[in-house]
Specification:
- By secondary structure, the chain is an alpha/beta fold.
- It has 2 domains: about 150 residues, Rossmann fold (3-Layer(aba) Sandwich); about 120 residues, Nitrogenase molybdenum iron protein domain (Rossmann fold, 3-Layer(aba) Sandwich).
- About 35% of the residues lie in helices and about 15% in strands.
- A 5-stranded parallel beta sheet has the order 5-4-3-6-7. A 4-stranded parallel beta sheet has the order 9-8-10-11.
- Helix 6 packs parallel to helix 12 and helix 7 crosses helix 12.
- The longest helix is centred in the middle third of the chain and has 22 residues.
- It starts with a helix and ends in a 24-residue tail after the last helix.
Length: about 325
Amino acid sequence: MSRLRPILFYALIAVVLPLLTSCAPSSDSPASSTARTVTDGLGRDVAVTATPQRVVTIAPGATHIVRAAGALDRLTAVTTADYEVDDLAHLPRISALPLDLEAIVGLNPDLVLASEQVNDPAHAEMFDALGIPILYLGADSWSDVHESILTMGSVFNTDSFAQAAADSLESLRRELIELTGHLDKRPTGIFLVSHITSYSFGNGSYVLDLMDWAGIHPLTRSFDTPAPILDDEWVLLNNPDVILGSFGESGTKDALLDHHPTWRSLDAIRSDRVVDVPSSMILTPGPDNIRAAWHMARIVHPTLFDSMATGPFSGSADQRSSAE
């Protein structure tokens, strides 16, 4: 730790501590009468008020977990990075990167929810010093997300709702794996975060698991880092059958070729197998990842779904699943 960081830390505490003490709940408040200890995604044992009524999420993935656990009514604020959806429209938004600590304290939360993949673990000591419990939800894998839903159900006393949601999502995951498991051959693929710089996902990333479930062999498992940047030569040498990405309104194949003209010879480009996956489904670890996997499978393997007149996530890619 640099010499400057402790100074900034204590200076920040000095600014926000008066705000916290001036609006702290009284000791006889029902929400503060009992507490439970919860182990979070960082392995920290955190004393959490039972049952939290004023919750702030500082990562979109944490918001998705709260939704799946059936506790959106407990949210006091979400981040400016959360997607604009109807069930969050009434909530104030705060900055998480950089973290607007003063705004969070001003909301008088009895619990802050973070993501181990997004938020700085060092923030835990700031919230500890302010007496605000913070839980970092696990998001490294689907099992972490599944466990986080159940944990939040326990924290919010919505166990039945959370268990039903978690079971439904797991059932959909297994159904897709069984469906794509009958493929004779899996196309190779890469996933790009941007059509400009080739940010991708490597070994250890949940996105590669989604591709596997969708019946696509991810070429980037060869990278030790979970967030590699692919150079054009590597892509040309590996020649993916499919290119997936969160390209959005920027377009797909034409936009890729504007920035990577040498890719014209790729099998994925020549066969027009460039697939857009809405960022809201895939770039945040959480329940929506199941929809992302089904979306990819439907586009890459349409014949698998010929006999399914209807089925999971058969509508618009942006339609929110009832499983949540």
